[in-house]
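Re: adenosine-5'-triphosphate structure - here you go.
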Amino acid sequence: MTDQTTERKPIIYSGIQPSGVLTIGNYIGALKNFKLLEKEYECFYSIVDMHAITLRQNAAELRRRTIELAALYIASGLDPDKNLIYCQSHVPAHAELAWILDCFTYMGELQRMTQFKEKAAKNEANINAGLFTYPVLMAADILLYQSNLVPVGSDQQQHLELTRDIAIRFNNIYGDVFTVPEAHIGKIGSRVMSLQEPASKMSKSDPEDTYISMLDRPDDIRRKIKRAVTDSDAEIRFDPENKPGVSNLLSIAAALSDQSIDGVVNSLQGKGYGDLKQTVAEIVIEAMRPIQSEFDRLMADKAYVQAALSRNAETVAGRAAKTLYKVKKKVGYTLPDRKQGRVQ
Ligand code: ATP
Ligand code: LTN
């Protein structure tokens, strides 16, 4: 895919866990931005199934969700021949680099991670070592491809900072091995909130009525938004601190209709919360409609989706191998010489 003789475009990397059907939070905070960057960058988008097993998954469901997530990537407008959409576990270099980077990451750094603390609190019976070292595997994902930019929601900023710290630490010891990546966090909707508890993030592993899935049908979208928590004064105003529910609905509408928040507020002048909710619901329905119909078409042709994943895994494995080879040499591993049957 990439022409080695021409100058390489800068690299984008991002990943999403196949841990449930994507929410409009995942779409607005991450997926929607992936497409915007397609022209200027070489784009790597992974389905991070290795991250997903940090919480217990049903094997058959995980397999199904992996294909569904690939189909959602494609249905959102990412052409798999132009974007390297692939599955993380297809490329063993991720696990290999993660181990090496584990040895360059401090316990204290991982103990400070908010996502670990939140997930550990929610899953007391299964606080496993993978959940703890989760951010190191994410750092390996990003650093393997010498990525420049990482589009994510704002909940991932802390993991991105850790990735940068690990890269800089490694480079200080061994020379310039890794590109130090930057986070790309959208201005509107980088943290879409739960419809029922607007103080916490909308999350695909929370109860159904707290989120809108990208595959929810119009009636479900209308029902969930109608029931969304607002407040008792009736003014439509963007004020996340004092009016988190209303502000969340305004952000969703703005992000999905490519308007400014002020634009949405102005269009609702003199109206009530009922009108606000109706407007937001229709915007969400219209934004998801073309994605859903493309998704349905792709799921009827899973072989196409699977073939794209396999093809791309081969391409990215070659790219990952280059960084991994360099890293192994730097840390002092001996490398087997396959032709001679010797150890170098
Ligand atoms: P889980 O609930 O299983 O932990 P999640 O819904 O938080 O998952 P991830 O797979 O961890 O989703 O995240 C995928 C991408 O979506 C990340 O870039 C993340 O920052 C972004 N994202 C997740 N939730 C939101 C949200 N509520 N608002 C904006 N962006 C989000
Ligand atoms: N940790 C992320 C998912 C993720 C990711 C990545 C994001 C795994 N590897 C690499 C960007 C780049 C999450 O929990 N949302």
